[in-house]
Amino acid sequence: MNIEKTPAPSVIGRIPERLLLGPGPSNAPQSVLDAAAQPLLGHLDPFFSTILQELQAMLRAVFRTENLVTYAVSGTGSAGMQTLAANLFEPGDTVLVGRNGVFGTRICDALQRMAVEVVPIDAPWGSPIRLEDIEQAWRRTPRPTALWIVHAETSTGLLQPDMQAIGEFVHRNRGLFLVDCVTSLGGAPVEIDAWHVDAAFSGTQKCLNVAPGLAPVTFNERALRKVAARNLPVTSWYFDLDAIRRYWIEQEGGGRLYHHTAPISSIYSLHEGLRLVLEEGLEARWNRHRRMAGALQAGLTALGFTYRVKEASHRAPMLHAVTLPPDLESAVRPKLLAEHGIEVGAGLAAWAADTWRIGLMGVNASEEVVLRLVDTLEKYLPAKKGAGRKAAEATLQADGG
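User: That's the sequence. What structure does it adopt?
Assistant: Structure tokens below.
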């Protein structure tokens, strides 16, 4: 039987414009998109080696670290989590994990699958892990190896306080301090060296404004000594730090060793995204996120939204978890996308039914975006018409806007 084959029409040219105000991904600047369209190089090409070296230097600057072993794992943020878990721990280790949202729970799951002993330090969703609870859990745990904590919990919008004090406590007690900074990197202060963080991971799709697909990681010398002292080989070939670092970091005498084919175009994009972050300046970028978060918070509160994180100082500036006003229908969220091209995220787990997660990440942390979202929401809250914009603009003006 002969069947005439005709190519199906491509949908790529019809992708709609969206304002991505969910928990990720965020919108990418045009120069980041353009970077991905540059000609491909071989992954061992000397020019590509230069790109890798520059990217590592920029990652160190954004992480605020001097760690030599700082690179981008080929995979999403969860691949960064798996890289830390697979290399640093093995059966016989005991890891304390802050568990106050989905992503702390995910770390526990990843470690338990490796037969690592996990001691959760629980707090209610929307509440931080308290330093005193960490201290108590550490002291009652026989031979703890490490503490792993989420800096900005994407499921709740909480920004963990006391990071430096936590790191100092863990180091005084000869443990490793690990941090998930997927959502916070590039949008709030992340101080790897000053906080005594031994290893951390992030993702590209949030405040760095790069497409998902790479996971920046960093390891200090204390962490590397733990890897070197393993009793068993790393069970993951793909995430094996000793193997992959020989690709990212030139060997004595020059050259890099093949491990896997790097995602060339994604690395181009991350290089450009990091360049834009550093061009703006970290402190300026952090301050911009803080100011726009304050304006959005004022606007949403005036419209009757309620923040899930009760303590304002514990709210992540780039991720707003809010419950809806009683006079706003839950069906409005899909209408925002269908009618206005604005994506916001739903809540997770127990918060799925009545919570939105609104992201102001990277380029989206702007006055234009805040006011566009508030104005759009007011269309569905006619009784409060103008209240959200007025509150947001007043906050910006009071904060120097």
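The first strand starts at residue 19 and ends at 21.
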